[in-house]
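pls design
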């Protein structure tokens, strides 16, 4: 191997390593962002009340601690700033749609100021005050209730560091070292108990998931038997219906006394059998989707799979409700590439994407769906693009979160479909990205990273 060839291979491997590192870093960030903002979404119904508490609480307690029960240090300007900061949260229902995507970030900004920063700063300035020691402890428990453990640590560290920095810039009162040291074990206990509470919350979420999986499995297996019976009965009727129709015609020709049965009625009977068969196939496909989603992802066997074959299989197997519905889904660019993963998982991922696109384009009364496979300089990817209603900006960051559901949510049902999609793709080393412009389009892109050091 000559020097130029060695340099070329080294550069290619470095490029692949950089892409893989970036992909893992991006996936870690997306997971952190989803976990961080989940609690913000759950807190949204209470944001108005928390906002009102901040707007009126900051100035009210200035009067309490400065006039009724005087403390060593107070700061009216800081309290008025906090009151102004919480005013948009009190008026959250009037936020325009284009700004609501920033609501979780603003929520964390406001709460970081109000709880770890403000209470820590006031504690440092009033270190010997029992009232502020207790107030700071209460702020810790409030953070435990409002945030998950990751958010609790991040906001707590940032807010406390800023509070220490602000105190060092303007130490109005001497630092009460002894009081703070005595308070430290109590503060540490609050932190530990908060982590236990966070773990309990995770356990309850997992119990909820297990309950849904168990219910899905039971429903799916219970439906298999009656659906199989319906299919067998339908096949029998479909097989013998032409014989009965022919016998009826011959009886009429022989002028026998038989009930009147028009040709149009016979045709409707035949179409009814087709409809029943199609609905049975639809139900069986839904059951398959439930069982695949309920089965542990790690149990799926990996193999080298053709992306194009998976897309065609998904379209062939998907239980479209009508020919018109089927005509709304087409294949655009049809390159091909091989990836190491599960054919069954990718097919069911595509089922979920097709189902969501069909549902929302039908609800909007507009839009077509295009599936495409790309293997070019942009990477190996499968794209599902629909020209439907798009996703609201405040919903878009959360569509892959488990149990996410709202009146405007893009996912349907219990909020586990798109969460399953992301988990299944991560199991295969892939990731999914969603781009959308509200009122115009939605595009899901499944990206399969190239194998490290693989020859191009």
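designed seq:
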């Amino acid at each position: 191997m000559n020097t130029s060839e060695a340099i070329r291979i080294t550069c290619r491997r470095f490029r692949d390593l950089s892409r893989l590192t970036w992909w893992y870093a991006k996936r870690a960030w997306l997971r952190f962002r989803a976990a961080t903002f989940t609690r913000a979404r759950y807190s949204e119904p209470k944001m108005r009340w928390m906002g009102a508490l901040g707007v009126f609480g900051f100035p009210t307690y200035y009067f309490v601690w400065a006039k009724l029960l005087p403390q060593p240090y107070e700061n009216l300007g800081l309290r008025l700033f906090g009151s102004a900061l919480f005013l948009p949260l009190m008026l959250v229902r009037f936020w325009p749609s284009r700004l609501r995507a920033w609501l979780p970030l603003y929520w964390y900004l406001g709460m970081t100021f109000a709880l770890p920063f403000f209470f820590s700063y006031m504690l440092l300035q009033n270190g010997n005050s029992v009232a502020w020691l207790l107030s700071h402890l209460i702020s810790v428990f409030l953070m435990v209730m409002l945030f998950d453990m990751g958010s609790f640590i991040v906001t707590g560290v940032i807010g406390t560091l800023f509070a220490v920095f602000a105190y060092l810039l303007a130490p109005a009162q001497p630092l009460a070292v002894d009081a703070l040291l005595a308070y430290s074990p109590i503060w540490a206990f609050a932190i530990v108990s908060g982590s236990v509470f966070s773990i309990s919350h995770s356990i309850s979420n997992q119990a909820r998931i297990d309950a849904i999986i168990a219910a899905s499995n039971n429903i799916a297996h219970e439906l298999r038997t009656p659906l199989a019976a319906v299919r067998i009965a339908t096949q029998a009727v479909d097989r013998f219906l032409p014989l009965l129709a022919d016998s009826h015609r011959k009886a009429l020709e022989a002028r026998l006394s038989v009930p009147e049965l028009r040709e149009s009625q016979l045709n409707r009977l035949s179409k009814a059998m087709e409809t029943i068969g199609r609905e049975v196939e639809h139900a069986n496909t839904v059951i398959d989707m439930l069982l695949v989603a309920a089965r542990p992802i790690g149990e799926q066997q990996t193999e080298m799979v053709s992306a194009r074959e998976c897309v065609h299989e998904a379209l062939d197997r998907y239980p479209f409700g009508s020919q018109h519905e089927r005509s709304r889904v087409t294949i655009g660019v049809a390159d091909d590439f091989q990836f190491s993963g599960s054919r069954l998982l990718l097919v069911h991922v595509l089922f979920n994407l097709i189902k969501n696109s069909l549902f929302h384009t039908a609800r909007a009364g507009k839009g077509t769906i295009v599936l495409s496979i790309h293997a070019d300089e942009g990477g190996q990817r499968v794209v599902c693009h629909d020209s439907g209603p798009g996703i609201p900006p405040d919903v878009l960051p959360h569509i892959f979160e488990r149990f996410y559901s709202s009146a405007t949510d893009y996912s349907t049902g219990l909020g586990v479909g798109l969460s399953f999609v992301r988990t299944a793709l991560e199991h295969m080393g892939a990731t999914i990205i969603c781009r959308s412009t509200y009122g115009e389009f939605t595009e899901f892109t499944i990206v399969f990273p190239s194998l490290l050091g693989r020859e191009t």
